Amino acid sequence: MKVHILLGPPGSGKGTQAKQLVEKFALSHLSTGDILRDAVSKGTEIGLRAKAIMAAGKLVDDDTVNGLVFARLQDETGAVLFDGYPRTLQQAEALAAFLSAQKIEMGLVADIEVPEEFLEARVVGRRSCSNNACGAIYHLENKPPRAENVCDLCGSPLKHRADDTSEAFRSRMEAFNATFKPLQAYYRGMANYRRVDGRSKPEEVFEAVVELYQENA
Ligand code: AMP
């Protein structure tokens, strides 16, 4: 068993890349944002606590997120792709300790770099499939669905995430800027850390990530 990591700011394309990577390489997709949104929509205890934090674009506390991730990893047997985790140095260190105790190998750490001025428009224009099992991601201008507000893949209505507004985006960027540098410095020293230019079209970024994945699989 091995885990791979996608790093990058909100709107860098982690979710879009992750969806294609898990299909191409038969990985298990572990998005902490998806797990938390699912908890919110089901109204679980964690969901009730996380709802307002997420809507405000702040980070859910490390212990809660680590707990959700480690519980999921216990059920996994093949390779896993993290999307949106780790997000803080504390999460990265807790993950490293967990992986070492469980003798799980660390695979590729792909850091998708996109300058801040590109990100807000990507996030505000994003629409996601409301069917969690599908979760396809669109953009009103860059990747519109064929029929307005309807998922091309499963026909479910699209939704605008509560935290994909300009206001929540600014707070998510603040959270990102406050925690990312130490996290990046932690991974940058590792042999499997690679930077990816995330400014181009999703297909082009995907080609670059696939190449890196094949080198590190
Ligand atoms: P995402 O879908 O990755 O953009 O995550 C959406 C929201 O879920 C974030 O803005 C946070 O509120 C929360 N979240 C997701 N992953 C994490 C994490 N690793 N640590 C803390 N909060 C997280």
CATH architecture: 3-Layer(aba) Sandwich
Q: Give the ordered list of helices and strands.
A: EHEHHHEHEHEEEHEH
Mean pLDDT: 95
Biggest sheet, spatial arrangement of strands? 2-3-1-4-8
Q: What is the domain tally? A: 1
Could you name the CATH homologous superfamily? P-loop containing nucleotide triphosphate hydrolases
Q: Outline, from the CA principal axes?
A: globular
Unreliable stretches: none
> In the CATH hierarchy, what is the class?
Alpha Beta
Please estimate the helix content. 40-55%
CATH fold descriptor: Rossmann fold
Radius of gyration: 16 Å
Spell out which ligands are present. adenosine monophosphate
Distance between the termini: 11 Å
What's the number of extended β-strand segments? Answer: 8
Q: Structural class of the helix and strand makeup?
A: alpha/beta
Largest sheet: 5 strands, parallel
Number of DSSP helical runs: 8
Give the tags.
single chain; 217 residues; alpha/beta; Rossmann fold; five-stranded parallel β-sheet; three-stranded antiparallel β-sheet; 8 helices; 50% helix; binds adenosine monophosphate
What would you note in describing this structure?
This protein has a 5-stranded parallel sheet, with helices on both faces. Strand 5 (126-129) and strand 6 (137-139) form a beta hairpin. It is globular. The protein has 8 helices and 8 strands, in the order βαβαααβαβαβββαβα. The chain has one domain (2-115, 173-216): 3-Layer(aba) Sandwich (Rossmann fold), CATH 3.40.50. 50% of the residues lie in helices and 17% in strands. The model has no long low-confidence stretch (mean pLDDT 95). By secondary structure, it is α/β, with parallel strands linked by helices. Bound molecules: adenosine monophosphate. Adenosine monophosphate (AMP) binds next to helix 2 and helix 3.
